[in-house]
Prior knowledge:
The complex is a heterodimer.
Chain A: H1 2-19, H2 34-50, H3 56-76, H4 87-110, H5 119-146, H6 153-166, H7 169-180, H8 187-200, H9 207-219, H10 224-236, H11 240-252, H12 260-275, H13 282-285, H14 294-302, H15 305-325, H16 330-343, H17 346-360, H18 368-381
Helix pairs in contact in A: 1-4, 2-3, 5-6, 6-7, 7-8, 8-9, 9-10, 10-11, 10-12, 11-12, 15-16, 16-17, 17-18
Chain B: H1 2-29, H2 33-62, H3 69-74, H4 81-86, H5 92-113, H6 119-143, H7 167-196, H8 201-231, H9 243-268, H10 272-294, H11 301-306, H12 308-332, H13 347-378, H14 388-394, H15 396-408, H16 419-444, H17 449-472, H18 480-489, H19 492-516, E1 519-525, E2 530-533, E3 536-547, E4 552-562, E5 565-570, E6 573-577, E7 582-586, E8 588-591, E9 595-604, H20 607-611, E10 615-623, H21 626-643, H22 652-659
Antiparallel strand pairs in B: 1-10, 2-3, 3-4, 4-5, 4-6, 6-7, 8-9, 9-10
Amino acid sequence: MIWVFVAVLSIAAMGALALSLRAGAPPREDADSMPAIFNDQLAEIDRDVARGVLPERDADAARVEIRRNVLRHLRMTGAGQLGRPRSSNTGVVLAMAFVPLFAVSYYTQFGSPGLSGMAVSEQREARLERQRVLALTSQLEDRLEADDAGGAFEGWMLLGQTRIRLGQYSEAATAYEIASKRPEADSSVFSMLAEALIAGENGIVTPAADKAIDEAALRDPSNPAVTFYKALSLQQSGRSAAAHDLIVARLDAVDGFFPWMESLVAQANRIGEGIGRAPLSLRDFAPMIAGPDADDIANAAEMSTEERSAFIRSMVQRLADRLEEEPDDLDGWMRLGRAYVVLGDTNAARQAYQKASALARDLSDSDPRNAQINKALGSLRQ
Amino acid sequence: MIPEIGHFALVLALALAIVQSVLPIWGAARNDVVWMQSAVWSSIGQVALTGVAFAALMTSFIQSDFTVVNVVENSHSLKPMLFKISGTWGSHEGSLLLWVLILAVFGALVATFASNVAVHTKARTLSVQAWITVGFLSFLLLTSNPFDRVYPAPPDGQDLNPLLQDVGLAMHPPLLYLGYVGFSIVFSFAVAALIEGRVDAAWARWVRPWTLAAWVFLTAGIALGSWWAYYELGWGGWWFWDPVENVSFMPWLMGTALLHSAIVTEKRGAFKSWTILLAVLTFSLSLLGTFIVRSGLLTSVHAFAVDPERGLYILALLAVSIGGSFALYAWRAPSMEGGGLFRPVSREGGLLVNNLILAAATGVVLFGTLYPLIYEALSGGQKLSVGPPFFNAAFIPMMLPLVFVMGLGPFLSWKRASSRHVALQVRYVGLLAIGFGFVLWYALRGGPVLGYVSLALAVWLLGATLREWAFRIQLFKVPFRDAMRRARSLPRAAHGMALAHAGLAVAIFGFVGSSVWKSEQILFVTPGTEITIAGFDVTFTGAEKVRGPNYIADRGALEVRRGGAEVTTLFPERRFYPVAQSNTTESAIRSTLAGDLYASLAEPASDQAGANGAWTLRILYEPLVNFIWIGSVLLVIGGLVSLSDRRLRVGAPGRRMQRAPTVPAE
């Protein structure tokens, strides 16, 4: 589409130059205003004489001077003869060729013809959605602030979570801070406060954040977020080895598998990279999960399509077998359901999600996994 | 896609400008009609393409297309529509695009309407204009492309400085640029004349309407900017000798000199090389202004180094255009013929004094503006500022003789004037002015002598201008109807001059009144505090929070009484714009012809005091300040009336000339 406009504009620019070829008869070279100006100069002398600021004797001298200028001007005019040499058309045609050539070659080099303008309407929708969420959030905030009892604890937590999602970290920290002063405040409130404070400072652990981490550790030393942020804090104060050790110790203490272990392992590897420690793998701490390891992935990359599909099936089968033995693993069933969806086995996927759904009954309503399972079952039913 | 169309249109405009910078001037050298005429069409093509680019950028701002970096940095989806539009030229890139657009507009205007200009001169002029366009378009495209894209697009923009969210400011840069850039065409005419070796009365007449138009725009732009500083910034003043103000004032001073010098060249064939030099200097000062403002040189010499690419490019542009035109001038000017002779007491003599004073005044302003920069560069970063005391001491005394001569000048005849005759005509006006000064002194008895002298000179200028106008139409000497008939037959330029000179006189009342007899108080106020200023009793009744469309504000209330009678209530505001995280001051003004009572709310006195409603309040009374704006309007109207003069109307002399030979000699 953009190239249509490029063509139209180029043709217009060339057309403008082409119009100069129409310059037929030479325009009057004497399109010159000298006589009119000399007339005006004489008229002004008359006006000055009439209002009495110029004596007649001086006026005559001035008139003589103007007439002398007229003569000199007449001598000077009649310079070159205007013409239309044969080469003039060639020159214009060359210029007409130059214009689009120059413009298109510059534009293809520096322009962004591929960036579509459709983005504008998408942007507008995203912005409207964001504005709606922002409006709802400020409504919630107003309600909480107006509440004589100081607003519900859950309300402040919800406000904090929404602010985090909107990227308004310092506002989120304010909400969490209010929640943290309530008797209901447990370790997770403080770790979320720390998270908001750190995100608000672009990842720098401030003294205020350190304090929140310590408060969280005081209430529940096993809170994995405490380990995560404590390690970050240690690393930023130059004690990367201690930070790495802290995470490894925490992971060693785990019995079984929990989703947060992945981020702790990733965090440990980030820190370990800087001090030359060997990378860790999730399987070192949770052998029961049979996820693909680095070798598996490398192998999979070299396989043909059929081989890869068979390989994936065998991996999924391994997971299914394990779940037969440990049927209480909610996250495992969800992972299995997702795998079957990817493999296109709708029936098996539905069964796996139904198992997960049964286990999820004990979860609180706010747990996101409920929504994920319901959504997956909803789409599998169609 | 719209930004891409704009980008491509701009590149095409550059290609056309390159063609125009070569073909017409070459055509003029070999008498080729087609090549010379190509300037007309490529000028029109350029203005169309630059217009498309500008419209594309404006559309991106209106639609809040955040894939355009410039829109992200200078707009926000919540901003009022008017300021989304003005955001188009609010940024460095956008304002340069506007610069180039106006450059193209002036080129196209000359191409279309200057049909009375000789073919060769016109072709050369348009080529020179295209040289400037090539320089600025390539600067724009290579270092400050307004159509740079970003993907994925950020969710929202980063706003425009809320200070800039003002109608006065939305209009101020376009007008200022129309003035600045308008002088480009005069520069092009001058360079073309130097190349051609032809400077005569006709040349001066071709140049005059363009000089006048640029001067009118620049006057309006400066006045509007000053008005904006006065009403929006809340500084309680209208001129601060700030470098940004100075760089627009210098071309104005030079342009004013040029306007007058061109008259001598047109009427008497004299001052030729001087007029050319002024034309070159005026635009050079416009370029220098653009350079100083756009290179970041003002914040600090070191800010220049932060983005050296832009700074160096524009410095090179400056060196080539100013250096090139001066070299050309040095080479060609000596060959110009001298004009008519004149006595010291004559219209020429008066205009020479005007030119010399204006040029010297420009030098003073230039020195005061550049000295801190030079000092910082040479001293290795030590800062120094040259402020109002320097300019008041150096600039104002130079203006006094200028105003005196301004009153006399129009009475002088060309070539040789009679001092006795002129003195007879202005004696009553002189006595009136001196008497006014003494009466005022007796009545007020305060303030510097210079203040009284200035006001007396303003009365002198106003009186002399009116006297001269009345004299020309023989008002009160002949029946009123005859006088009106004479007024109608007088060239419009004469009316324009009278209006503009009277406008300056009126403005001087404002300048002097509001700076010499200003009263100012800055104090802590709590609800109930009473202040007495310039005869007003003002009571602060407290401040409350109010909510605007995209800001929240503290609004103070001040009850104003005089002699017990209620006059008005003022509501100064201090606004906070959450998106931009910044504060602005909205002053409250009670405006009358006699003077402005002006109040602005600064910060709460302290956090603690803020809780009790205590604020820092700035309140001042500026006598006669509105005369500045009235005078400026008169100056602009004077320029426009003069511009409408039949003799300057483009094309008219050409048609007249065809008939002229048939008119028998008088």
